[in-house]
Amino acid sequence: MEELATVIANAARKAFKNLFANGESFYYCTLFTTGEGHEPYISAWSWEALEREANNPTTWSRDSLHKGKIDNVVLSKRKELMKWSYVDSPYYCSGEEHFQYVKKLFEARPSSAQLDEEKWLIEWQLRLEAMELAMKILDKEGLFSLNQARELICILVEVMPPDEINTQIAKRLNEAYNLALQSWLSEAAE
Fold first, then answer.
1. pLDDT of 60 above 70
2. With contact defined as beta carbons under 8 Å apart, do 58 and 70 qualify?
3. Closest alpha carbon to 30 in 174, 168, 155, 177
4. Quick one: DSSP state of residue 89?
5. Of 118, 137, 147, 182, which has fewest CB within 10 angstroms of its CB?
6. Number of folded domains in the chain?
7. Strands 65-66 and 41-46
8. N-to-C CA span, the chain
9. What is the largest CA-CA distance in the chain?
10. Residue 71's pLDDT band (cuts 50, 70, 90)
11. Confidence label for 69 from pLDDT (cuts 50, 70 and 90)
12. 60: number of Cβ within 10 Å
């Protein structure tokens, strides 16, 4: 597991560093996978990106515009819906090219179709643990405090579709006093 975690950490480090070079203030960084345990990728949100995306008139419906202006109530709801969505982020799968070796390693491992349910659960858990360890490695290096104080960013390992394991991992990856974690727990946790 440690070897797999190191490979994931190396890919995620490159992807996050490239992303963080934009100088924005991030509040959410995730390493996500599917319920089938496919290779992980990153996603993130910064306050600046949330503002840009929520205010982007090209993605607004006619009904949410009033005389060419965005309705403030709709804008607030839109931000609320986007805030913790890995897939709605403009940084979804950012640095995907860095995960090619991770993809090969995951594809070389046994799949759910090749294992019985009990053995697949063990394999799936190993993959999640490797991802969690990778995020811990990057956190210990100080990666997540490059553009903001660490307590202002929630780092996650997420399974999609959402699973309650996401909340357990979030609590292990972030200190209880972390302001971003507290927001995530009240607004998005399973």
1. no
2. no
3. 155
4. S
5. 118
6. 1
7. unpaired
8. 26
9. 59
10. low
11. low
12. 16
